[in-house]
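Per your request, structure below.
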């Protein structure tokens, strides 16, 4: 009887060991999915595919990208937050994940408790552009113009990064803007080029060619220093101080209870990814840069996420921005 009970107990221990998460030495032993909450072709999808290719090469296993859209990125985020914490379902997200905490009255997950940052990947400032025939030719002239009349400001969707940036600008400049919502940045830029709206916050990569060709004007950039892509474009920080310094950033996340050894292995591989000269050259050409090394730890990523939630939460509350659910 005793021998039988011992055998059963031993068997159960074996099952438990087999069911336990694989060690970092064994990871990954099958395909890893990186979920993106946006359609294919956008900046987050592009970055996810770049790192998936690098991780596949380094870790000798397939890393694939799955685009799960809808719900203001909540559907995809919830999918990963509720996934098995084994390192095989990851999330590529951006600044929007921090804003959603306050934008929505209730989320089906706790952003800080249910997810952990694997690593902060890259970042770029936003540049404020205007139609080519707008009367202002500098940031100071634009501010003066905004105080005289209400300009039409395109926003790439309610609650999106560009909307929050536009709202923050209006708040700090103490002006009113007529915010015109679009389904993404592409149609907004079409209307800037067509002269149908006055100003728009864009990523550098989307407007560098048009600015160089004189098809639109550039007024300010949200980085503390000027950008090599736009050396003559003034920093908003010089006019409004540090509150106007921010970046559109992207990071890789995993379910919160993913084994630390697996997170560490992914982080180590990503450290090599963001030092790849070919990738750095590609990013630099579009105004994108990796985070400084000191900010590429999991702890630093989680700390920045917490800080970004507080930062954009204040902007959202101060301006009574909310999304109906």
């Amino acid at each position: 009887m005793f021998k039988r009970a011992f055998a059963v107990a031993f068997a159960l221990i074996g099952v438990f060991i087999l069911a336990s998460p694989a060690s970092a030495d064994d990871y990954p032993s099958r395909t890893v999915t990186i979920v993106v909450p946006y359609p294919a072709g956008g900046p987050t999808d592009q970055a996810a595919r770049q790192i998936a290719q690098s991780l596949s090469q380094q870790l000798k296993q397939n890393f694939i990208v799955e685009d799960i859209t809808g719900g203001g990125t909540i559907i995809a985020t919830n999918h990963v937050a509720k996934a098995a914490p084994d390192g095989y379902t990851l999330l590529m997200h951006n600044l929007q994940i921090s804003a959603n905490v306050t934008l929505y009255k209730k989320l089906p997950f706790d952003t800080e408790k249910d997810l952990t940052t694997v690593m902060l990947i890259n970042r770029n400032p936003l540049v404020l552009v205007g139609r080519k025939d707008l009367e202002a030719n500098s940031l100071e002239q634009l501010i003066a113009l905004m105080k005289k009349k209400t300009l039409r400001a395109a926003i790439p969707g309610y609650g999106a990064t560009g909307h929050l940036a536009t709202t923050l600008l209006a708040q700090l400049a103490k002006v009113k803007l007529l915010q015109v919502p679009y389904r993404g940045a592409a149609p907004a830029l079409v209307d800037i080029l067509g002269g149908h709206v006055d100003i728009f916050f864009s990523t550098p990569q989307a407007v560098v060619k048009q600015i160089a060709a004189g098809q639109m004007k550039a007024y300010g950039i949200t980085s503390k220093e000027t950008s090599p892509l736009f050396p003559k474009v003034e920093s908003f920080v010089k006019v409004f101080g540090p509150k106007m310094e921010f970046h559109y950033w992207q990071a890789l996340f995993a379910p919160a209870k993913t084994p630390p050894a697996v997170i560490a292995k992914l982080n180590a591989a990503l450290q090599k990814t963001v030092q790849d000269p070919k990738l750095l050259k590609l990013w630099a050409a579009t105004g994108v840069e990796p985070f400084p090394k000191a900010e590429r730890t999991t702890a630093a990523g989680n700390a920045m996420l917490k800080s970004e939630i507080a930062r954009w939460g204040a902007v959202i509350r101060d301006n009574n921005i909310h999304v109906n659910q």
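The mean pLDDT is 91.

Regards,
D.
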